[in-house]
Amino acid sequence: MTLPFSQTADLRPLFEPAGVVVAGASSHPGKFGFAVLHNIITCGYQGRVFATNRNGGELLGIECLTSVAEVPAGQADLVYVCVPAAAVAQVLREAASVGIRAAFIASSGFGEGQDEQGAAHGLELATLASELGMVIAGPNGQGLVSTPVSLCAQFVGPFPPAGGVSIVSQSGNLASGAMNYATASGVGVARAISAGNATCLGVDDYIAWLADDPATTTILAYLEGVADARRFYDTVKAASARKPVVVVKGGTSDDGARAAASHTGSLATNDRIFDGMLRQAGAWRSPDIGAAFGAAAALAVHQPMQGPNVAFLTTAGGWGVLTADAMAQSPLQLMELPDDLMASLDEVLPPRWSQGNPIDVAGGETRDTIPNALHLLAAHPSVDGVLMLGMGIQSNTAALMRGGQFSQLDDIDRICSFHERQDRRYAEAIVEASATTGTPILAATELALSNPGNPGPATLREHGHPCYTSPTDAVAAFAALYARGRHLRLS
Amino acid sequence: MTLPFSQTADLRPLFEPAGVVVAGASSHPGKFGFAVLHNIITCGYQGRVFATNRNGGELLGIECLTSVAEVPAGQADLVYVCVPAAAVAQVLREAASVGIRAAFIASSGFGEGQDEQGAAHGLELATLASELGMVIAGPNGQGLVSTPVSLCAQFVGPFPPAGGVSIVSQSGNLASGAMNYATASGVGVARAISAGNATCLGVDDYIAWLADDPATTTILAYLEGVADARRFYDTVKAASARKPVVVVKGGTSDDGARAAASHTGSLATNDRIFDGMLRQAGAWRSPDIGAAFGAAAALAVHQPMQGPNVAFLTTAGGWGVLTADAMAQSPLQLMELPDDLMASLDEVLPPRWSQGNPIDVAGGETRDTIPNALHLLAAHPSVDGVLMLGMGIQSNTAALMRGGQFSQLDDIDRICSFHERQDRRYAEAIVEASATTGTPILAATELALSNPGNPGPATLREHGHPCYTSPTDAVAAFAALYARGRHLRLS
Predict the structure, then answer these.
(1) Among A117, A427, B288, B430, which residue has the fewest nearby CB atoms (within 10 Å)?
(2) Residue B57 forms contact with A (CB below 8 Å)
(3) Is there a cis peptide before residue A4, judged by omega within 30 degrees of 0?
(4) Distance between CA A9 and CA A132 in Å, rounded?
């Protein structure tokens, strides 16, 4: 039922409104109409905020209007609609009459339950969008986030840190999921939207707009079905020419497709055809939201890879072995180190280093070993990517000492501070060396999960750099960077 | 070079020593000989602790002896050795002379660098173990952990919570990795050991002892090679008959095998043969430590599955779809719900539930919906496993309110407390219903990663229950429970 927009819909009123109206605000904190108003105010939205409630009254410091028609003309661009389905059309007409150009409809009852009256409301929405010249998101969606204007127009958490990843999702919960990963990793979000039933605006409409959105560096989409496969392909292809697009497709199996039919009413698609279509369009496909965010994070932070050659720098042998195994199942190469690089490494590494890739310093590192080696590797023309393993181990031991009964001893404080400083320096070297050379440097350690305050992962997070928790995830992120580079070179 | 123990080596002196000596304790907090003594004391080991240092003196409240020979006879069972390789033999002879029956050797220089002198030291160790009748772990290892006696005899962190998973690893760092997962998940550890060069005691010796260890409910092993494939097979098979064994094998690819040769000197093995051998022995194989710990955690906490039928209970549609897709690639079934179960569910679920599996309550849950449905599902004879999705979402929204500018309002506190209490109840229902029915109930949400304080995941953690962060991980854990049940039925 996607409207035949001949060109990209203008979603600026949706994502950068000068003012927002919550229609159907509620004084009950368990209701959507309370939570969304609360989140808009508390997350620091700087534009004008209005709220309507049939009974008027004050809510969270805002004097409620009794209808959207009372909003001063031209003061708001977006109405977030929480009223019952039957009342939505009236709200939209009033909104249009005061110059509001975009709506997000949270209300359900638009045919998602297959009932006839709901379907009629859905049809009416599509017609209204066209008649009123409004862009209409939802219905039956959680809301939207737009960090450039500090807008958290959704009835759920979290409000993620600001950054370049934009999220479009046919599942509100998986939009939240991606934002939870943003919160955990520090790799931030520009825009996020739960498409709901996508009655008027579909996933492809959002992708088309985000492709031109300067705040968006990478697009992450979750979808269960597409209304018009050709249009979706053209949209993704055009977007991929501008910036990376990562797609998660739900319902690839028979059981998944049945679950998707129940969830979003999507029809089953032939997954091999869909997969080939995505590849041809230049998108990267991930199996779930965690993997997708991992790929999007690498793509948002790093340059694409110029070739498949990866060097591992590790203080921990076992991690190197498992990551080599994981990489062997990817198009990437655990590169052979050229002679001149071996010679340069010999100058900065301890004598007992592994003399090959993985570059295992076997615990023999001193103050500058790791930063020097990172810069050396990233600057070498034959190295397309660097993976740092083993960061944070010393600080993890320091954490045991900090929490122990001897933590007051000067000697213990001194050694803990040294190790913590070192792990911070390693993280800073990753940020610096990848920025100055353009070579992606990724880090992986499960400490990002078990000890998020560890100075290694924490420093990466502060810089908005991802830190992967498994060899598989790190390799998948490199594979996305490599595929992106190849796509740009071949197209 | 594994010694031909005709039967299981007695590792009680290693894992449950009445006293421990740190030989080569150091006053420099950056040295192994300081860190291990510190960790033994600070983690609360209740046995007698001795330390030796050539110069004597006091260290962390302990009066150092100048040699192990000075330890009062019969007062210690274990010596943790940090002295240089050349001095190790002397320490071991002295240890034996005062009745010490086990040694962990952290020192390197025993042939891991392929040097001749080191290899000679290694041979000497093997001979000494036999001559002195000692069990000798290492050399070149990080140490061991034994939570039943609060022993943290390792120079690194973490000291994990107590529990039933025991860890044997040819990589010290990956032993730490598994313990980091234990710390993050709350699914605790019984014993953990870094096998180092495994000169005397190999992975199979540890597995053989752990198979009979009452504190160990599940064994997790990381290995890169086995000295005697037949002995390894027999050991794992015998252990699997008693309790679940989870194995990660590093070096399965050519690159990984080269990295393993450099790391532990292991020879490449034919991976398909190794895989078949593990399967026949009844072990579960995982690709990395995170997945292995996820499987071990399920196996440690839950009963094996009696069949492949899994029911999903979800408040979030998208998660159900992706998990159904992941499950379609496993031997598990997204089961069809039998009529009587459908009828019972109809009584406890809101009218708009999905009327099928995944059981999506579509946000319509009230106070008792989820606990009631969990108990109903787990108690039904046709359900072999239950997966709970969407736990913690409301508390994640509550977290936004708790951190916001209106957090002092009574209404907000009330609704947040309600949601937090509900998520706690869901977690408690998982713990209770799986305990009373024997049906495994797993939970999955990325909030366990992004918001570990969320009452849903936090309550599971407090009860020592795992909470998975991705659909793939949850499905892999179910697959391990299913394989375990099948192994027990067929053998």
Answers:
(1) A117
(2) no
(3) no
(4) 14
| pLDDT band with cut points at 50, 70 and 90 for residue B75 | very high
The length of chain B is 491
Distance from CA of A269 to the nearest CA of B (A): 13
CA nearest to B191, candidates B156, B149, B227, B235: B149
Q: Taking CB atoms and an 8 Å cutoff, what residues of chain B touch A155? A: 397
Residue with tokens 């955690």: B297
Residues 119-158 of B with CB under 8 A from A: 152, 155-158
Task: Give the SS3 label for residue B172.
Answer: helix
A258 touches chain B (CB under 8 A): yes
Q: Please tell me whether residue B251 adopts helix, strand or coil conformation.
A: coil
Structural domains for chain A: 1-141 (3.40.50.720), 160-301 (3.40.50.261), 304-490 (3.40.50.261)
Residue B40: which of A406, A450, A417 has the closest Cα?
A406
**Tokens 């990551």 map to which residue?**
A323
Best B321, B352, B354, B391 residue to mutate vs chain A (most A CBs within 10 Å)? B321
- First CA to last CA across chain B, in angstroms? 32
Residue with the two structure tokens 């009459």? A97
**φ/ψ (deg, to 5) at A471:** -55, -40
User: Which two three-digit tokens encode residue A199?
Assistant: 């009655």
Q: How far apart are CA A467 and CA A298, in angstroms?
A: 9
Note whether A327 and B255 are within 8 A (CB): yes
Smallest CA–CA distance from B183 into chain A, residue: A450
Looking up tokens 């920025």, which residue turns up?
A: A435
Chain B residues with CB under 8 Å of A41 CB are: 405-406
- Within 8 A by CB and 6+ apart from A473, the residues are A290, A291, A294, A444
Tokens 């001559």 sit on residue: B131
pTM for the predicted model, two decimal places: 0.95
Q: Which tens digit of pLDDT belongs to each residue from A325-368? A: 999 999 999 999 999 999 999 999 999 899 999 999 988 888 99
Q: How many CB pairs under 8 A join A and B?
A: 298
Count of Cβ atoms closer than 10 Å to residue B278 Cβ: 21
Separation CA A150–CA A263 (nearest Å) = 30
For residue B400, give both structure tokens: 């936004």
* Best residue in B322, B394, B412, B421 for a mutation probing chain A (most A CBs within 10 Å): B322
Tens-place pLDDT, residues B129-165: 999 999 999 999 999 999 999 999 999 999 999 999 9
In contact, A295 and A476? CB cutoff 8 Å: yes
